[in-house]
Amino acid sequence: MRTFLGMAPAESPRLETERLVLFMPESRDAERVLGYFERNRKHLERWEPSRPASFYTEPFWVRQLEVNRDEFRSDRGLRMFLAPRKHPEGQILGVANLSNIVRGVLQGCNLGYSLDGEQQNQGLMTEALGALVEFAFGPLQLHRVSADYQPENDASARVLEKLGFEKQGYAERLLFLGGAWRDHVLTAKFRPGDEGPDGTSRMPLGT
Predict the structure, then answer these.
(1) How far apart, in Å, are the Cα atoms of 73 and each of 12, 26, 99, 192?
(2) Max CA separation in the chain (angstroms)
(3) Residue in 154, 155, 176 with CA at minimum distance from that of residue 46
(4) Spatial distance between the Cα atoms of 134 and 132, rounded to a whole number of angstroms
């Protein structure tokens, strides 16, 4: 079950799935968000950029959470955090982002995500991203969601495959993560039945 709770234009969305709540924390939630990154510092460092020491401080997240809200209000991104649906004020379980939203002829964005190391292999990320992508194609009216993963990241590969993302290519040395330039598999998913300005459906890949 997925629920998109109503919102005014200036407010942020809140998505509910069977087990999760996806929400945009306020500055008062900075301690909870910091706790997630502190607990998972070692777990995530292989897959994410190097972080300055200030990243692991509460003042940083007080500011950053306000920046995230400004980013959503200006239609540039949607950065959400995961919490248990039964305990929405409890421990943060993960992150799910739509970043680099571009309108005009692209109508697309990038998908990013991470999950608490102790919550792996329960299907939580598939559940969360399914709701977020549905929101991207529904209320946000995006045409394309792109998601890239490192070839050795089998967990990400499985999640994206389950969600129907299509492989688009392979980029060598795409991002500097975990102390080295990393190759990435490029994937994307398109809004089902989306039509172009001339009323025709998107051309299938490979034609």
Answers:
(1) 8, 14, 13, 26
(2) 51
(3) 176
(4) 5
DSSP at 107: -
Q: Find, among 125, 138, 65, the residue nearest to 96 by Cα.
A: 125
Which DSSP state fits 88? T
β partners of residue 97? 79, 112
Whether 149 contacts 185, CB under 8 Å: yes
Strand order in the sheet with 108-115: 3-4, 14-16, 20-23, 78-84, 94-102, 108-115, 144-149, 180-190, 166-177
Confidence of residue 195 (pLDDT cuts 50, 70, 90): low
Pairwise CA distance, residues 53 & 46, whole Å: 17
CA dihedral 135, 51, 69, 28 (to 10 degrees): 110
Tell me the whole-structure pTM to 2 decimals. 0.87
What's the pLDDT tens digit per position in 97-126? 999 999 999 999 999 999 999 999 999 999
* 13-72 confidence digits (pLDDT tens): 999 999 999 999 999 999 999 999 999 999 998 899 999 999 999 999 999 999 999 999
User: Which residues does residue 171 pair with via DSSP β-bridges, in sequence order?
Assistant: 184
Strand 180-190 to strand 166-177: parallel, antiparallel, or no bridges (unpaired)?
Answer: antiparallel
Say whether 193 sits in a helix, a strand or coil: coil
State the pLDDT at residue 129: 98
Distance CA 178, CA 157 (A): 19
